[in-house]
Fold this protein.
Amino acid sequence: MSESILTLSIDGKDVSAVAGQTILEVARENGIAIPTLCYLQGLTPVGACRMCLVEVKGVPKLLPACVTRAAEGMEVTTQTPRLQEYRRTIVELLFAERNHVCAVCVSNNHCELQDLARRVGMNHVRVPYRYPRLGVDATHPRFAVDHNRCVLCGRCVRVCDEIEGAHTWDFMGRGIECRVITDMNQPWGSSETCTSCGKCVHVCPTGTLTEKGRAAAEMKKRLQFLPYLTLMREARP
Amino acid sequence: MSNKIRLATVWLDGCSGCHMSFLDMDERLLELADKIELVSSPIMDAKDVPPNIDLTLIEGAVSSEEDLHKALAFRKNSKLVMAFGDCAVTGNVPSMRNMFDVDEVYNRAYVETADTQKQVPRSVVPALLARARPVHEVIHVDVHLPGCPPNADIIFYVLSELIAGRMPDPMKIGKFG
Ligand code: SF4
Ligand code: SF4
Ligand code: SF4
Ligand code: FES
């Protein structure tokens, strides 16, 4: 069966897509950059962070590019003043929600949130900071989780479930009370499902999940493993 | 009359690292010296807040009553105010105390961790505000320069642009942390 090919436009450029592809996939194939945070190639997209919002002509609401399928004749715009303002506000809200102190973070200079701040032109946070009292769990022999830096993107939850097959991570609580937890909200070190593979640590975009023994700015994430694992999985008979 | 830019620099709740980075401009300071008149700074002796300041650089978060007083006074006398470094822009390290009540902070610093004279000072040391705050939360800020500290190159870029009468965009080359 031949795949059906669609034609659409992104930022005024005519592009083609295979039916089923998302706007984000098509944009990236064509060198059009849309910022993302919760999306990670190789994991199921969930549309959680809203960084990738785009405008589609004729549709009154903004649509997340990572979970919206391309359609025939669609006219997509990825950079308007409204989108830029929303993206900046989202990043500001993430900084205000928890305690991100870049200067003393193990992921300083290697952090996707810090990069996004620069990319969206956030030069200061215009909403009041919350300063929640959040803890660090360092009970795992090799890894630690610092809830002060978590942006609830859910990449850890998905990689552990979809790729490692352990499903150690999950979410607990709603709204501002939401947290990532291991097993039944118990210390990571006491988890019976964690295989200590480290995948969650390396897909985490911030300094939340880290290898122990790293000082400020020393934690570099290695994301390269994910496309390989996904490819190998797809190649299986 | 001199047409040099009247510059002030202020040190609130910061580690002085941003001022050190300013000095790191090295020989470029000579270039700036032709265009700038330093009217108040922790590196010189000036007791009062001078009038008619063109540009004030504020390092550090606003953490104490004295910090607040200085921020307000320099704002009043300055055409432009720049939040200079992460502590001024975000609260940064000084704001890490904000998840605790101010009494807990005092207790930790002056009682729990003290070997002798276990008491919270009630005079001389300026009283802490309930929270260490970014400068823009207490006064209007015209330019935000993030970085801990911002490096000498970006300070030079931002100052050169301001001296030339242009509004710089520090996020083009700067970053938090
Ligand atoms: S180390 Fe591996 S098994 Fe353990 S929580 Fe992380 S992804 Fe899951
Ligand atoms: S721990 Fe990291 S990967 Fe998991 S939700 Fe938080 S920021 Fe995302
Ligand atoms: S921003 Fe960094 S270098 Fe500047 S005063 Fe604060 S801690 Fe020190
Ligand atoms: S990247 Fe699309 S919603 Fe997060």
Observations:
- The pocket of iron/sulfur cluster (ligand 1) is lined by residues A 159-160, 164, 166, 168-169, 194-200 (CB under 6 Å).
